[in-house]
Amino acid sequence: MFCTAFESYLNETIEFSRTLAIKQDTNNKESILKRIDDIKKAKEIKDKIKLFYKGYDSEDVGIDTNGSTYQNLIALFRLRNEIIHYSPDMTAGNKWPIRTKEAFFKSNPKIKENTTWTTTFGAVSVAKWAHDTTIAAIRLFAKISGSQDPFGEETPYPWHW
Q1: CB 157 within 8 A of CB 150
Q2: Burial zone of 139 (CB within 10 Å; 0-12 exposed, 13-18 middle, 19+ buried)
Q3: pLDDT in tens, the chain (161 residues)
Q4: What 3-state class would DSSP assign to 44?
Q5: Hey, what long-range contacts does 92-98 have (CB within 8 A, 24 or more apart)?
Q6: Which bin fits 146, alpha (ψ -120 to 50), beta or left (φ > 0)?
Q7: Is 82:97 a contact under the CB 8 Å cutoff?
Q8: Which side of the chain, N or C, has fewer Cβ within a 10 Å radius?
């Protein structure tokens, strides 16, 4: 769910930007549209995320790919993919899928005896980590891009919690 929320935020932002760029008559219109198209064309989510942050950064730097926000976001997407595309053949020999390793150490779920990886990642600590990861990623984007932080105290929306 949190991956979907982040990816929806990303897609909504670039579509809104695309619409604005098309409607406005500016000198850099083609450059803006190219950056947006490059983000949309990215095949892997990690590349899409890097292009997204860089494309909206006035300093053209983007997200620190060694930083915790990016690393947590990538681990969250890998966990999501492992859950969505799960097949018992992937875990032959009772081993956990390798892509879940990062998420396991970052979310720190408590393991009970005879628990499978799919049950373990249903823990509240994993949900909290996924929530915090998504909020941090969106807040970092707001900071880098200069857009309004939807989770900041200045946000006038009635659904702010």
Answers
A1: yes
A2: middle
A3: 787 889 899 999 999 999 988 888 778 888 889 999 999 999 999 999 999 999 999 999 999 999 999 999 998 898 888 777 666 665 555 566 666 777 776 777 776 666 676 677 777 888 898 999 999 999 999 999 998 888 887 655 555 54
A4: coil
A5: none
A6: left
A7: yes
A8: C
